[in-house]
Design brief:
471 residues, alpha/beta, 8-stranded mixed sheet, 4-stranded mixed sheet, globular
Length: 471
């Protein structure tokens, strides 16, 4: 039997609660205000990690992560244009080692995980002077309940020095981006022994430093196959908690998430301009879900969401996914030290330059891996974001009617409506509405932003869907 429809809150109770919350925030103590400003207060939509997830996170091993980073550095250079058939040096040696490791993880999966090379020949293009084979290493852990839903986590295994075309000099690439590859590989190792409901893809991609070529190929392959990629995270420069001035922030990770979608059509742009939603793209909802599930004591990390697609003058492997309409975001350490990325290995005036492993913080990388694991596992186990979420706008009223399409998950229990002030970054109110496909809130759609999320029988909540207007 489906749960009965809960009683709707009245406009008076909604507005009273909202006003009371506002008054409380105005009169709050300074420490509380500082906590809210720093983002340390959990959002209303936050969900605590399950016992199963906590046990999984404890399996992540900083020593294995360190060994992976140092092994990748040992190949001398991993430049995309470096030698591909030497067993000990160059990007080909790194590729073969990563594949062997991924296959060893797959062997422990009971047949659920496969590992393969995904290759193509890139014809001459910017930073690719001659036709070059670019190869991604991809491990796929097939979901046991909803395998059609796909989530992707990646790092790039190519590296560079000061001259982006220098394919022969030693290019250790410890932080940029052996650290991100180590995160993806450690998650593959740990999760291979578990049974996610949805499919998770763990990828080490090439060609990032030359122009995001490997990630673009992978995203294109997903698009051509009609894959339902509902979330993608790249981990790029996640190896150090130390900034260029020597300060440390070992318990924060940045998450870059775009607002206006890269793939937005002119019609979607016109709708957004008319009703708002610049802060409610699928990638921003994904970022909120990261805060909901991974900013807690189980990961030991604070997730600092940055409202940008990426840093100034920089770009990462999430961008090709954004270009193809997939929600995606980028994890990067809290403050970079530019002496240890994109630099020739050298000493100048007593200062060491170069992306060397001695400048990495391996317990920090392990915590970043736990953040990724918490998010990916929660996404894979929870229901998907509701499809076809709409706000009905045919009539001018001071209430709001929302509709959506019921999901197909066998353990789906129902839905929740969430809302927040238009100036608030996080969802602040949650109302259970039962196993229904419409709900009316006695609150004006003109004044707040609404969303809908699904709940399963285990109490796991999926990401929020932001509704579009329907006349």
């Amino acid at each position: 039997m489906r749960p009965s429809r809960p009683q709707r809150p009245s406009r008076r109770t909604v507005l009273t609660a909202t006003a009371a919350a506002g008054a409380a925030s105005v009169g709050a103590a300074a420490t509380t205000a500082e906590a809210a400003e720093s983002g340390s207060r959990p959002p209303a939509t936050a969900q605590p990690p399950s016992r199963e997830l906590r046990a999984l996170l404890r399996e992540i091993d900083p020593a294995r992560i360190e060994a992976t980073v140092r092994k990748l550095v040992s190949f001398g250079t991993r430049h995309t244009l470096s030698i591909q058939d030497d067993p000990a040096r160059g990007i080909g040696a790194a590729r073969d080692w990563i594949l062997a490791e991924m296959r060893s993880y797959a062997a422990a999966s009971g047949g659920r995980m496969t590992a393969e090379l995904q290759s193509y020949v890139q014809e001459p293009a910017p930073r690719i002077p001659t036709a070059t084979r670019i190869t991604n290493v991809v491990a796929t852990l097939r979901g046991s309940v909803t395998p059609e839903r796909v989530y992707v986590v990646s790092g790039h295994y190519d590296s560079r020095v000061t001259d982006v075309m220098d394919a022969t000099s030693d290019s250790p690439g410890a932080d940029d981006d052996a650290s991100g590859v180590a995160v993806a590989m450690e998650l593959a190792r740990v999760m291979a022994r578990h049974r996610p409901a949805s499919t998770i893809v763990f990828a080490a991609v090439a060609g990032e430093e030359q122009g995001l070529y490997g990630a673009a190929h992978m995203a294109s392959q997903f698009k051509a196959a009609g894959a339902d990629v509902q979330g993608m995270f790249t981990n790029d420069i996640v190896g150090s908690s130390k900034a260029d001035d020597g300060t440390r922030d070992p318990y924060t990770i940045r998450l870059f998430a775009e607002g206006v979608p890269t793939s937005e059509t002119p019609e979607q742009a016109a709708t957004r301009r008319s009703v708002g939603g610049e802060n409610d793209s699928p990638s921003r909802q994904l970022a909120r879900f990261v805060r909901d599930t991974a900013d807690n004591s189980a990961t030991g990390m604070h997730v600092r969401v940055i409202y940008r697609r990426d840093r100034y003058r920089r770009g990462g492997d999430h961008i090709p996914f954004l270009e193809r309409g997939y929600p995606a975001a980028r994890f990067t350490e809290p403050a970079e030290d530019f002496a240890h990325q994109h630099q020739d290995v050298r000493v100048e005036d007593g200062k060491q330059y170069g992306d060397l492993p001695e400048f990495c913080d391996f317990p920090f990388i392990a915590r970043v891996a736990r953040v990724n694991a918490a998010v990916l596992w929660s996404l894979a186990q929870a229901p998907a974001a509701p499809r076809d979420a709409k706000i009905l706008t045919a009539a001018l009223t001071n209430s709001t009617e929302l509709t959506w399409t019921r999901g197909s998950e066998p353990d789906l229990a129902g839905y929740e409506v969430v809302w927040r002030e238009t100036t608030a970054p996080e969802w602040t109110h949650v109302v259970p509405v039962g196993d229904v496909t419409s709900h009316e809130v006695d609150l004006s759609k003109d004044n707040v932003f609404f969303g809908v999320r699904a709940v399963n029988r285990a109490g796991l909540r999926g990401p929020v869907s932001f509704p579009s207007p329907q006349a």
